[in-house]
Amino acid sequence: MEIIISPSILAADFNILGQQIKEVERSGAKYLHIDVMDGMFVPSISFGMPVIRSIRKNTDLIFDVHLMIEQPMRYLEEFADCGADMITFHLEAAGDHVEETIDRIHALGCKAGLSIKPATPVSVVEPYVEKLDMILIMTVEPGFGGQKYIESSTEKIRQMRQIVTEHGLETDIQVDGGITVDNVSVVKEAGANVIVAGSAVFKGDIASNVKRLM
User: What is the sign of the dihedral through the CA atoms of 124, 126, 131 and 135?
Assistant: First the structure.
């Protein structure tokens, strides 16, 4: 499958964010990963619709919006309106509304992704796998950048790819958290093909870092 790099702007320098997004464009990366955190589902607070709307004006990169928020159904229209191309939400945050949330994302013209935390087994994703465009395996605890990759994530990626394959699908599997040039080959070999990287992209030469991750 095609390997896609999705640089996470959580690790960008917001003083020169526009400039760094242009560097991401030139690097060959196709996605821009945008972490939205509400201070409730995860302890941190990041950014929301105004930031996304602002940077949407300046790039054609695919906006890979990762909602780490409680009751994500509340804000789907707003994120679609401000420029999200793909909206990924957490199974743990959606309660009994997982399928309804997926359907609503699709109705808004966006691709739908479903994410699970490190402690959540991949088996809980299987009932929804036929409807998903992407599955995000968190490889650190969501909420903070710069964490170390959780080694047990490798087996979860492998299991998720097996489930997808058994359903006759080639659904994208994304990984997010602690991905570096030293371990990216491990997650790719396990079956991940959409690689979120923050510090590994934005610290140093962006174009060179992206190429090393691919």
Answer: positive
The rounded distance, in Å, linking the Cα atoms of 92 and 108 is 22
* Total number of residues shown for the chain: 214
Burial of 160 (0-12, 13-18, 19+ CB in 10 A): buried
Distance CA 177, CA 179 (A): 6
205 in catalytic set: no
Q: Please tell me which residue in 38, 64, 172, 176 is annotated as part of the active site.
A: 176
**Residue 145: predicted pLDDT:** 67
List the catalytic residue out of 35, 38, 64, 172. 35
Q: How far is CA 148 from CA 6, 50, 107, in A?
A: 18, 30, 36
Decide: 38 and 45 in contact? Cβ < 8 Å. yes
Query: Which strand (E) or helix (H) includes residue 76?
Result: helix 76-81
The secondary structure of the chain in percent helix, strand, coil, rounded to multiples of 5, reads 45, 20, 35
Tell me 148's DSSP state: P
Q: Is 64 in the active site?
A: no
How many angstroms from the chain centroid is the CA of residue 50? 19
Give the pLDDT confidence of 128-185 residue by residue, as tens digits: 999 999 999 999 998 776 779 999 999 999 999 999 999 999 999 999 999 999 999 9
